[in-house]
Structure formats: structure tokens, C-alpha cells
Design brief:
- The complex is a heterodimer.
- Chain A is built from 15 helices and two strands.
- By secondary structure, chain A is mainly alpha-helical.
- Chain A folds into two domains: 2-46, no CATH class; 97-395, no CATH class.
- In chain A, strands 1-2 form a two-stranded antiparallel ribbon.
- In chain A, a hairpin with a 3-residue loop joins β1 (213-214) and β2.
- The radius of gyration of chain A is 23 Å and the shape is globular.
- The N and C termini of chain A lie far apart (79 Å).
- Chain B has helices at residues 3-21, 25-45, 49-74, 88-108, 110-113, 124-133, 136-172, 175-191.
- The radius of gyration of chain B is 27 Å and the shape is extended.
- The chains are: A mainly alpha, B mainly alpha.
- At the A-B interface, α6, α7, α8 and α14 of A face α2, α3, α6, α7 and α8 of B.
Amino acid sequence: MIGEFFKGLFLMIWKVVTDQPDPKVEFVSVFPATIQPIISVLLSIVPIIMVFASLFALTTLLERKGLGRIQNRLGPNRVGPFGLFQPVADGLKMLTKEDIVPHSADKLIHFLAPIVLLVPTLLAYAVLPFGQNMVPIDMDAGILFFFAVGASTELSIFMAGWSSRNKYSLLGAMRAIAQMISYEIPLIISSVTVIMIAGSLSLVEIVDKQSGYHFGFLPHWNVFTPWGLAGFIIFLIASLAESNRSPFDIPEAESEIIAGHLTEYSGFKYALFFLAEYLGMFAVSGLAVTLFLGGWRAPLPFLEIVPSYIWFLLKLMGLVCLFIWIRGTLPRLRVDQLLNFAWKFMLPMSLINLFVAAIWHFTSVWNFRGAGLGRWLLCAAMIAVPYVWLGRTLIGNKKITHRTYRFAN
Amino acid sequence: MGITFAIIAALTLVSAIAAMSLRNLVHCALSLAVTFAGIAAMYLQLDAQFVGFAQILVYIGAVAILIVFAILLTRSSETPQPVISRSWIMGIVIALAVFGVLTKVILSSSIAQRELPAKPAPTVRQIGDQLMTRYVLPLEAIGLLLTAATIGAVIIAMHDKKGRGDGGQNVNSTPSRAEAHQHADETHNLIT
């Protein structure tokens, strides 16, 4: 019994590391038939929580270090070598802090908000294909599931803001909802283009459609098509806003409204909010990787010997580093700028992009000489011309010149 | 069916009753969101993935938020008068009467005698195929309507902003002077 247990365990680990199909089968069959489904489910859930929670710890350190370098500071460097154990210290601090609930707060909702936020965020991981044989649930409507659970996080942010009975919290929650609703539309429309071209809502099939290479080296990723590139950029901007990251961090703008809906939270509940925010960022970056960057597929044919999940994680970390870089570079938007940008620029651009994707789909039957290039140029022009026109129109008569600060000079 | 159904049904019913009877309007809205989630869970239990996820996306992601916004932006969330009205006995009598009549009519109609159809397998792909072939015209009509509404909202927002901007300029100076001012600005920019 014990021998079989360890044999199954080692076989499973070996299969996971070497990227083979059905890694769980032998290990699960060791257990009695009644608890096999539960063991199988646990084997899918526990690694997701462990991997992404430790990725969260690593990313907080990376973010603080990266922001430090961008701002000419050292960043955390006291705990452990190069400050590597800083996340551990932070976690312990969060756990041992007193949990303060305001006297006039709505106790039940104040307690429920972080939980209701974290659960859908974790659920979103259920459909992401992390590797060739690593998808927790291959759902027919995977991407719809992702957006459905993502939509329910808005309500929990409102719960947090409203139940605190603090005007800053309520203001932050209202800002967060306005922002998330506005940016959800371009987010979904830009991913509809991929669904339209792939002809499936299943994320596994979307990754499958991006296999193969042009000319032997350029992968068939969606980001290398005109609509894919535009869609990827729109998706990236909208996902920054969805995960409340800078420059879209007005819901928790420290200098205006303290910390928005987080103001009245402390201790472990605050840590849960923080965790949910980062997990949401990883999930939406994972979706961006799946939709536009070829999912777990290798960028070059000879690199396919590297296991697929490593490529997924590398692309994911690339996007996370990009998010950190953007956070260190751009200042925060004003509320009106934020909403104007969403409704007057992002929405029209994503609708145009949807139209271009349809044209891309219909011109795929062209087979004269130079059809591929002509199709590419046509679609690129159809995106670039409205982009320039829309940008010019929105700027209008405003003159963008060098700004002078009368009192600073 | 079985215990899953019982749990979901109990959750849906309890939260629906709470949505009707709680005093605080925001609490009501939140319990309504739980009711929506319960209905979505019911759809999912019936293997209707598309409808279930669409229910969550539309009702929890949009309708519940809209309700909450409406409550917060219109008036105070505390209801001053008692929730249960004074003529509750009459209300219950009327409700029971309506329920009785409806039950009687439904049981005596031909629908009750009809046999249950075989359980279909409504995968998302089938729904998509049907929407794109048989029901393409209604779908396109709805799509056109919604797109027109979205673009209309954007245009209203754009127009409002532009109007205000012009108004601000006109207050400061006559149109011709404003133009001249702009022209001067342009030449200034060209020089610098």
C-alpha cells in the first residue's frame, strides 16, 4: 500500500515535470474508489493555490525591488539575502496584526467582502490551460466562465466600500465600480475577436488554433496579426484597469482617498484583498497569454523541448514585469480622463477591431499571389487610420506643448 | 436532483425572501444578487452552461451593480416606514387566490398532459450554430440595436462635453475673438 502510494506519487511528479498526459491517473487509483474524485479534484486545486500564492509573494518582492530601481532607491534589502525573505516577514506581520472593525461598520458584510472577492478570483484559474496537459477543467464555455466569475468581483468591492461606513471607502468603491464596468466592455470585445477567429469559446481549443509557424520561425500567435496586435494592446490596457493597477489605480488613490475600499481593513483581511488583487492580475495576464500570445506554445520550433508550462509561466511573468514597469512609469489618471478614455477611445477602437477581425476571417479565402501580405496591409490600415483619426479628433483643439510650472521653477 | 438541488433551492428562496423583507435597501440588493447566483447555479446544475454563465455575467455583473448604483445615487438607503404593510392579511388572501387559480388552470391545460421531451444536450457550440444559422436575423437585429444604443450613449457623452467647452469659450470672449486667440496660439506654437 505505502509502496504503491509513493510509486504513484513519484510517477505523477515525473509525468508533470516531463509534460506527459494524464499525470494523475496512477496516483489516484491507489485510493479507494469512493474518495477518488475528491483526491483528483484536490490534486488540481492545491497546486494552483500553492503556485500562484507563492508567485504572489515573489511578485510583491519583485515589484518593490523594481519600483525601487525605477525610483533610484534600493528597495527592501534587510530580510535575508537581497531581501528575499521580505514577503515572509510581510506575511507574518499581516497575520499578527490586530483585525480592526469600525464601530459603525456593517459587521457581516465587512467580514464577507474579502472572502467574496477572493473566491471568484481563484475560480477563474479553473479554465486556464497552464500547459499542454495541465488544464483543470476543459469547459466548452471556458472564456465565458472566466468573465462571469470576473464580473462578480465588482460587487464585493462595493460591499467592502459600503460596509465600512467611511466616505473615502464609499468613494473608492464607486470609482472602482465605474472603472471596472467601463473597462470590462473593451476587455470582452477585444477577446471576442479571438473567439470569432478561433470559432470556439474553449480556451484549450483557442490555444490549439495558434499552433504552427509561418516560414518556419514566426509562430501563429494571434498577436502577430493586425487585429490581434490591436486587440492585445486594448486587452492589456483594459486588464490593467480591471485589476486596479497604476495608472488606473484611482479606486485606491492614496493621495486622494487614503486607500479607497481598503481604508478600514487591517490585518489578515487586508492581506486577503491584496492577495485577491494580485491573483486577479495573474489570472487576467494568463488569459491574455492564452488568447493572444499562444498560451503554452513555444516561440520557436527548436524550443519545443522545453516543457510547455515553463513557457506559460515565462510569458505570464513577462506580462507581470510589464505591469510593474508601467506602474513605475506612468502617473495616475483623473476620473474624467479615465472614463473618457474608456468610452470615447477604447470602446470605438475595440468595435473597429471586431470589424477588422471579421474582414480578416473573410479574406482568408483569398489565394492570389501576395494575398497574405495584401490582407495583412489592408487590415493594418483599417486599424491604423481610425486610430489616428480618433486620436486627432479627441485631442481636438487642445495644444499639447511643453508644460511650465509657474511656482516650481 | 437530490441534495445539491435542495441546497441551491433553499439558498435561492431564503435570499429572495430576504431581498423582499430586509429593511436596509443595500442589504436587499445584495440578497437579490445571491438569488441571481442561486438561479445561475440551478441552470448549471441542469447542464445549461451558457445560460448559467450569461446569468452571472448579466445579472450579478451588471443588473445588481445597476441596482446598487441606483440606490446610492437616489436617496438614503434606510427605509423609514415598516416593511410589512398594514393590509398584509388581504395581500396574503389575494396572493393565495391568484396562486390557486393559476394552479388549477395549469393543471387542467394540455401542457400538463404533455410528456417530458428527451433531455437535450445544449452545448455552447450548438447554441452558437443555431444563433448563426436559424436565428441569425433576430440575433443581428438585437446586435444592431445594442450597438446603436452603445454608440448613441458615447455620442451623447461626446456632444455634452463639446457643448460645455464651447460655452466656456463664448462666455469669455466673442467667437471671432476666440478664433483669433486660437490662431495666435497656433502661430505661437509654430514659432516655439
